[in-house]
Amino acid sequence: MADDTSAHTPPNGGIPKDRGGYELASKALEEARAAARAAGKSVGQGRASPVRRRRTTGTRRSWSGAGPDARDPQPFGRLAAQIAGSRGWQADLGKGMVFGMWDTIVGPDIAAHAQPTLLRDKVLHVQAESTAWATQLRYIQSQVLAKIAEGVGHGVVTSLRITGPKAPSWKKGPRSVPGRGPRDTYG
């Protein structure tokens, strides 16, 4: 007679049909707990375990973990902004950004025909290449101020003083006579 063990074992790999997945998991958990108790460990107490948690409200942990830490690398822009703020350089940085980023702030069309010359007391002096461009910039002055505030920050520039090209000088040489100058030059 042959040794037939397949007749004595259930067809699904040794698991009786009356036991479901929950019962099998429960039995495996109980076996694991029994093995842990045999090893001398405290098992099955959940959050009431004797291990004390040191976390208190309002204190910050002193080790690295999943959350941000003061020792984590910081973006360079954030560090530069903190240094500038602590030393009072914000106003000077704003001025530099207005002059340095003029083309990107107002766009290439306006930047090709008008340039900033001076920023004093939150008033930006802009010189246009012609009187027509100066007039056009005066019409869109509020839009230009909004673009500057968006690009550089609010409060850096509060108003614009737009001027046209400089008039020609009639003074020739180191000595000149004061007065109104030539009268009948143009006609």
From TrEMBL:
<protein>
    <recommendedName>
        <fullName>UPF0232 protein GOAMR_43_00700</fullName>
    </recommendedName>
</protein>
<feature type="region of interest" description="Disordered">
    <location>
        <begin position="163"/>
        <end position="187"/>
    </location>
</feature>
<feature type="region of interest" description="Disordered">
    <location>
        <begin position="1"/>
        <end position="75"/>
    </location>
</feature>
<comment type="similarity">
    <text>Belongs to the UPF0232 family.</text>
</comment>
<dbReference type="Pfam" id="PF05258">
    <property type="entry name" value="DciA"/>
</dbReference>
<dbReference type="InterPro" id="IPR023007">
    <property type="entry name" value="UPF0232_actinobac"/>
</dbReference>
<dbReference type="InterPro" id="IPR007922">
    <property type="entry name" value="DciA-like"/>
</dbReference>
